[in-house]
Amino acid sequence: MTVSVDVVRTPAGNFGRLRRGLERAGARVRWRRTDRWEGRPRGLVLAGVSAFGTAAGALRPGTARIRQWANEGVPILGICAGYQALFEASEESPGVRGLGLFPGRVRRLGSPRRPHLGWSRLERIRRDSWLLREVPEGSYVYFAHSYRAPPGGASRAAATAYRGERFPSASERGPLAGVQFHPEISGPTGARVLRNFVARVEAER
Amino acid sequence: MIVIPGIDLESGRVVKRVRGVRGSGATDLGDPAPWAERWVRAGARALHLVDLDGAEGSASASARAARSLLGSVPIPITVGGGVRSVEGIEGWLSAGADRVLVATRFWSDPAWREEVVGRFGGRLTVCLDVERGRLRLEGWTRDGPTLEEALDELDGLGVRSVLYTEVASEGTGRGAPEAEVARLRRRYAGELRAAGGIGGRDDLRRLAAAGADAAVVGHALVAGALPESVLAEEFR
User: Fold this and answer.
1) Which terminus of chain B faces fewer neighbouring Cβ atoms within 10 Å, N or C?
2) Cα–Cα distance measured from residue B236 to residue B233, given in angstroms and rounded to the nearest whole number
3) Domains of chain B
4) Active site residues of A
């Protein structure tokens, strides 16, 4: 029995591997536009490869609904810029409001060697994380970003360091989750994360 | 240092040429997808794809095969071969490539060099395909600047990643270019990938000691001189 997952994507970018990754994890993928919802999704992925403003802008017509679904317990996974869009705002796009489902403002990486492109470790993985279940401490995942989430407090599920700067690389609050890395190109570890998400969607039915 | 498996595509099929000469070496190793799948299962952390048809200036079945891999393989992919325009770079990036290789036009056109570094920065890997101290361009058919001249250029540009290939030993497995890589390491602080002549584990250890961040291996993997388990290893 496959469960359907709705994916909201930004206009730019290629999401072939995200689709394949979710399908391999057991989901049926439906691409969604935020201005034309058809009913409440079982699970929602916010995919983004571009800037915060673009990602948040692509979500805007659906902002109120996405917030409502998050409160109703629909599992949501934000990826990269889609993760950043879950926060309140970003230095990258002043004046653009995020979903505000996680607190704080996304900021630019401190190192002048931006973007952070490459494999880095997941550290301080929260033991009770459902998204990172069976992901061993120190696992490598793939990053491509110039901005970072604010210190996570209670919602931080894992952290990663780039050139001495530590930032949350995964956040979680109930069935709401987000990752700064790209699970769809993070090999077996990324596949595990996508399977965990799809499993959560199945469990919430 | 990690090991990146390299796939060379000709007419959409995997080939392994010797010193880049068309028709040399292994001329048909089959569909690239099963190779990519095996290497992902073995723990590969990236894939390196070269469209040899593109490198020689013809439109290709290889480009289609590469796009298919970009839509399915769950690890970062570097793509190159004949990329000589801004649209060419954008095309690969929007097809899902994580890095794009540039060589010929990059080293022949200073204005373009600055433009693409400014626009695509970290998404480019600049090829240094070297034979007897000189860069080889246009599918390794023409001489470019000397390696020294190229390094002088790199210093000021802000290029984040380079790939050093020893043209004379490519596809031979006769030994890695560790002395050249060590010299390059002293001159260049960014990501340094190396290829050409890698034939065994000792070569990988020597390249790691010389300061390479990644070794791109084709011949030794498809010929079985290196086990696929090296793809999950970290060499120091």
Assistant:
1) C
2) 10
3) 2-226 (3.20.20.70)
4) 80, 182, 184
Q: Does A26 touch chain B (CB under 8 A)?
A: no
Cβ contacts of B108 within 8 Å, gap of 6 or more: B137, B144
Chain B: residues touching A (Cβ < 8 Å): 2, 40, 43-45, 70-76, 94-96, 98, 121-123, 160, 191
| Contact between B76 and A185 using a beta-carbon 8 Å cutoff | yes
The minimum CA-CA distance between B141 and chain A, rounded to whole Å, is 32
- CB distance B96–A144 less than 8 Å? no
At B76, the pLDDT band (50, 70, 90 cuts) reads very high
Give tens-digit pLDDT for A117-166: 999 999 999 999 999 999 999 999 999 999 999 997 889 999 999 999 99
Q: Cα(B185)–Cα(B182) distance, rounded to whole angstroms?
A: 5
Domain count, chain A: 1
Name every chain B residue with its beta carbon within 8 A of the beta carbon of A20: 71-72, 74
What pTM was estimated for this model as a whole? Answer: 0.91
ipTM: 0.86
Q: Considering only CB atoms, which chain B residues are within 8 Å of A191?
A: 74
Among B44, B70, B74, whose Cβ lies nearest the Cβ of A190? B74
Please report the pLDDT score of residue B59 as a whole number.
Answer: 67
Each residue's pLDDT tens digit, B121-130: 889 999 999 9
Each residue of B184-207: b (16+ CB within 10 Å) or e?
bbeebeebbbbbbbbbeeebbebb
Domain of A74: which CATH number? 3.40.50.880
